[in-house]
Amino acid sequence: MNLDLRKYSVRTDLAVESKELAETVHGGPVTGIHEEVEEQNGIKITRLDVKDERASRQIGRLVGHYVTLEVPGLRSHDSELQERVSAAFAKEFIAFLSKIGIGPGATILIVGLGNWNVTPDALGPLVVENVIVTRHYFELTPDQVAPGYREVSAIAPGVLGITGIESSEVVQGIVDRTKPDVIIAIDALASRSLERVNTTIQIADIGIHPGSGIGNKRKGLTKEILGVPCIAIGVPTVCYASTIVNNALDMMMSHFNAENGSEQSNTKRIMGLLTELNEGERLGLVKEVLEPLGHDLIVTPKEIDEFIEDIANVIATGLNISLHQAVDKDNVAAHTH
């Protein structure tokens, strides 16, 4: 078998997954990356700093700061856990803003990317529905704005297929007129891990490229393009069929190895040459089989309807707490619907 596997890449928008894959490929830690991991009450928080271009190339992520919250329990629709995740997200986001030099008086534009007609892609618009917007009060009745609120505006610009206009062009026009200090862009992502779909939130200071999770190349929302810092918040809501097949092969090999103990011959007899391929090679093989047939589908769990509402509320609540000092986790429910 003589395959050129370079054209096949593991499709993920998560920095933690890119780092894990790079470590698997290189057989050890990637230099130039600082990592902190904290776990408490069912919430795992990973803070990654990609410090130089060499590390950036190795993991395929831009130089910058990444924070990932992983909460497997979110699948259970536990309202108390959702409140804890909102509080943890708010705490991390406040620290994130401080780390990249965004002060408490900075004006914010929240951009909800995605297609509100397609449930797995509706995260951004749903968050926009639930955030507290205040810019009109600052513009019209500034003397009546209570202390502890900052100027926040929000927009869900739709997608190119509906509007005929790139999201970045819509946002650029708004930025030129309203002059926000910071953009916060929310979008759905793709993951290489079934376990992280619908259970993970990523914060990054590198901006965002709408449609990149499903392989579309679109003009991005970045500081270089828009002229102001752009923070990306994303949740993986989909993965590729090839990823699912590859994960299934991994689980089968792990199962057979566990059944056979130290005896690997049975595993090789069942799985054949697949046991000798690394993850990237195996995924490349799966894609080579599926893509010509049009079967490398983008897949989302059947519970996506309930989940997308829940996670949008979690993120919106966390943003409201972190952006407005007057809002806390006890009274924020009164401001969202």
Automatic annotation (TrEMBL):
Belongs to the peptidase A25 family. It is an enzyme of class 3 (hydrolase). Keywords: Hydrolase, Protease, Zymogen. It catalyses: Endopeptidase action with P4 Glu or Asp, P1 preferably Glu > Asp, P1' hydrophobic and P2' Ala. Homotetramer. Autoproteolytically processed. The inactive tetrameric zymogen termed p46 autoprocesses to a smaller form termed p41, which is active only during spore germination. Coiled coil: none annotated. It comes from the Bacteria. This is Germination protease. Initiates the rapid degradation of small, acid-soluble proteins during spore germination. Its EC number is 3.4.24.78. It comes from Paenibacillus woosongensis.
